[in-house]
Amino acid sequence: MVKPPAPRNMAKRVFSGVQPSGSLTIGNYLGALRNFAKLQYEADCLFCVVDLHALTVPQDPKELHQRTLDVARIFVASGIDPNRATIFVQSHVPAHSELSWLLECTTYDGELRRMTQYKDKASRQEVVTSGLLTYPVLMAADILLYQSDEVPVGDDQKQHLELARDIAVRVNNRFDEEIFKVPKPYIPPRAAGGRIMNLQDPYEKMSKSTENPRGNIGILDSPDEIRKKIRSAVTDSGREIYYDEENKAAVSNLMVIYSLCSGQSLDEIQSNYADSGYGDFKKDLAEVVVETLTPIQKRFAELSEPGVIEAILAEGRKKAEPLALPTLNRFRDRLGLLTHS
Ligand code: TYM
Q1: Which residue in 46, 249, 268, 325 is a FRET match for 231, CA 20 to 30 A apart?
Q2: What are the chain's domains?
Q3: Predicted confidence band at 9 (pLDDT cuts at 50, 70, 90)?
Q4: What's the per-residue H, E or C state across 57-123?
């Protein structure tokens, strides 16, 4: 059944972003993108390729350019309809950077230094830019600029979202007025894809920027690559297949991927494989993953025709900017900045 297009005045506003900082993984898809596609039917959604966020670590300019287009293509290929949701590039709406600066001046240095992602990334970088530290403020700006009600993300973004909420509450209290909506996180539990783990290390999150890429399933990986990576995925001791995040971390992660790709519940999977070992389970898992990703890859290839995704992004910018400006201007005004004509 074809659902009617989402009217602009839908009650709920949803915002989320994805960084063009590496090859997108099935973790991005299961934790975030597939929920984006669902939410577009119930809310006015904005999905953003957050290119400015990617600059916090060194990027090859050509690759950044290509990846920005590719992330937008993956948005559409995973089911986001550009006629229903707004798809755009963060740096095309300069209000994000401007609001980020204004919010930096209401955020404390200590709050940013406490962020676990900052501590983790900073400890691994030779050069730590101040952008890496202030990154969560830019993320808060992305969200607050659009008066977002809900933000669908994986559970690694939870702390950043809490900061965005704290900043919104602080500003609202200061001016005794709702300048910003206080956004709610939309984070699936682990068993529903909130944190997909690396196939080579079930205690490390699957990540675009991992040092362990053999443990990532890329959204654009070929069927053979997917089969190979799943075949060599680490497993736990004992042959049994059941869900137990603590004692069966590797198998539990594979079961979550299986469940989300096939639509079968974790219980069904457990009983289907009660009498088989890891070999059969992994073979079937590879096929359900290939079946899930193949249609996305086909649509992605169709979108590679020059000009197609660029036109979608140009349209997206035109829709996003007028939504952002009233909030920015109101905040500028309350801060005492002069209005310009
Ligand atoms: P990013 O680009 O690292 O990831 C994009 C989305 O994918 C989710 N994700 C995962 N979910 C489950 N399992 C995993 N292994 C996994 N890896 C990544 C992320 O949680 C995210 O939802 N800071 C954000 C981008 C951002 C943003 C925003 C998000 C910038 N501004 C405003 C929401 C709202 C990031 O780096 O996501």
Answers
A1: 268
A2: 13-189+306-335 (3.40.50.620), 213-300 (1.10.240.10)
A3: low
A4: CCCCHHHHHHHHHHHHHHHHHCCCCCCCCEEEEHHHCCHHHHHHHHHHCCCCHHHHHCCHHHHHHHH
